[in-house]
Predict the structure.
Amino acid sequence: MIIIVLLLMLIIAFLGCLARKDLRHSLMFAFPIIIIIGMYVWLFTLYPVQWGLKKLPFVEQTRIREISASDYSNIKYKHPKHDGVIEFITDKKLDDCEIILEGGCKRNLSYNDFMNNDSLAILISYDVVFVKEMNDKFFYKALFIMEQSNKNILCDSIYCKVFMIRMFAPICETNEFAIPYNKLFQMENSVYNEVEPTAEHCSSPNH
């Protein structure tokens, strides 16, 4: 809000100088206007992503496993029961944003799709935790809960995305990755490595 008010004040002053044909002062106001607009476009819009100037994080590897007692350290939301852990590796760190992982039985669902239709979500995680950096990659784990029972699900794979939410900015998302549905109920005494990204690197916010 402060940035918008400041920008409006500068624009009014700039227009006033133009009306008085005061070129020198017009240029003085023009430069900060251009800088503020540029900062706003870079930080709070998806245009840099669409223009290929900024790359969104890409999920390169995933696995699903049972939850353990140690997973409950450093989490924000303490649900009565989590159903498992999805671990994933990204090529960029997910900084300065709220991170939510959601999965459904349909491909290419957006955050608004999940928000507008609760029945689309099969699993969800509000506890996406950064674990460590390794070989210039970033390792995360997501403690998820099942939103629907297995009786209500008719699909072979659950298609997941990680959504990055910042105040006053559009919601960004990673590429989509698939988790075989039957692995959710076969995790006892085993860890399943599943690597199945369903999208290539791209500059668009929607894959």
Remarks:
- The helical segments are 2-19, 23-44, 47-50, 111-116.
- The mean pLDDT is 77.
- The CA atoms of residues 25 and 188 lie 72 Å apart.
- The two ends are 31 Å apart (CA to CA).
